[in-house]
């Protein structure tokens, strides 16, 4: 039996026996939604939640609990949100000793949620975690009594990500006085509330009011409130490092709510491919397509070499298809030179287009330029290496970026964390994540500088998977006919300076740190599991 100190026992008894006797002097019509802004990083989530309430035709105010740590710019943006009201409050002490990794999503500031019971000017509050969105009007929640929530699928606990609250200075004082001694099964606020409040004192809500984003198709379709519970969050999924996943349908749903949020809006270049709704943005990687083949994604602008190259790839037995990304809108479309060669015609000229993936049918994608000619043995060997490491990027050209002061280098003697996209294998889900779900603030840097899409792609992949790329060293010559003539090869260009600038900008906007680095290379004579470039933390 779990030990509970005397103070919480009194509180449990008081709530379970006397809850109905607790009266609130506030105006019965004073109702509101509420959420918690823990830090600046979570602001896009709050803005998406606010959008979702408006889309669901809610006019009730959204109270946002804010700790002192939130910056002035974020506070200003929050106050500019329609119908949002900032509630600045002092932090509550985090009552547990724990490592940052164990705390995971249970940030210490989440205990500020307990301050909601002190907002006695409101008669009823529906609390929504920042990682929720409202898909349909939920005005009926205000008819439920205080301490209403959805039961967790497993165990005898209630999920406090969505709950109905009846503010009371009496209840608030009991909670604040006793939460630090109550214990918590998850060292978070949810565990503390479940320890403080008797199980019988809660009123269960239907699961449609707090449906996890990983729910099955029917459950997801019927949900009124989606809860993106777990480490992978829609607004910074590239920081999950392999922990948790987001189904495509759930990511698309969040993007709909975030479409007017400047810092979060997914750029959604192209449609989600058929069947993609059951796929995942993070975590699950499978090296096999229908037949274990590879799709080639060849980007071209003005060189005629695309034709010869596309045919060369198409004739290989393990290549299922070759898609040519036709970047030059002014150049007349040409006829496909082989039955396995097809075209993608973007509406705009952008380096971000080289990751268009909606039509691809293989999980393995080889991304390449129109000026790289490589021997077939090297291509086959690299494909085999990728199949052994489907969650990693595998490529022929390693590079490295450093976070301080924000630099990019071709000197990989100490290790590398980039493989260039002019010859690189990737899982299709990483392309889809880049192509559909990265915020515009990131892809805009690529467009403004006509550069750096490969740096951003690598940062995305490392952040999503928690694994650095693998470089393949070929014993045969790989011919780069564009060397010295492309945007990265001009000796008098400011190419490296631009790449340094991109590293700095991407880092400021929350992309992956460079802690994961590979050393060495995967050699062409390498057999199964013979990988020299293993990952380690630096």
UniProtKB/TrEMBL annotation:
Compartment(s): Membrane
Alphabetically ordered keywords of this record: Disulfide bond, Membrane, Signal, Transferase
Stored Gene3D superfamilies: Spore Coat Polysaccharide Biosynthesis Protein SpsA, Chain A
Single GO term (MF): glycosyltransferase activity
Organism placement in taxonomy: Eukaryota, Rhodophyta, Florideophyceae, Rhodymeniophycidae, Gigartinales
Entry-linked InterPro entries: Exostosin (IPR004263), Glyco_trans_8 (IPR002495), GT64_dom (IPR015338), Nucleotide-diphossugar_trans (IPR029044)
Boundaries of every Glycosyl transferase domain copy: 306-509
Name of protein: Glycosyl transferase, families GT8 + GT64
Signal peptide: 1-21
Organism per entry: Chondrus crispus
Pfam families: Glyco_transf_64, Glyco_transf_8
CC per GO annotation: membrane
Xref: SUPFAM superfamilies: Nucleotide-diphospho-sugar transferases
